[in-house]
Design brief:
Helices cover 45% and strands 18% of the residues. It is of the alpha/beta class and 93 residues long.
Length: 93
């Protein structure tokens, strides 16, 4: 399975959506969104993740998330997104 890592930038949603769909069109089976560029996920951020998941699955791919930030991980847990998305651990440096 080929994966590609993309930084999650909710303020640039259209560019993010385009990058995810292009990665899938270029042969990636899974796109991993790195959420470490945000300190917290608000309602719009959660909504954006769900929308991207739908678009990714409709295109035949998978969307996974990774974050090392406790506040972001807590939001993913409270909203049950950590059970809907595949969660990927950050690689050790």
């Amino acid at each position: 399975m080929e994966s590609i890592l993309i930084d999650y930038r909710p303020k640039e949603y259209l560019a993010l959506e385009t990058a995810v769909l292009l990665a899938l069109a270029d042969g990636a089976d899974r796109v991993v969104l790195d959420l470490d560029s945000v300190d917290a996920l608000d309602t719009d951020g959660v909504r954006g993740l769900i929308s991207l998941l739908r678009r990714t699955r409709a295109a035949g791919g998978d969307l996974a998330l990774r974050s090392s930030k406790p506040d972001v991980r807590r939001t993913l847990s409270v909203t049950a997104l950590d059970r809907i998305f595949t969660m990927v651990e950050a690689e050790a440096a």
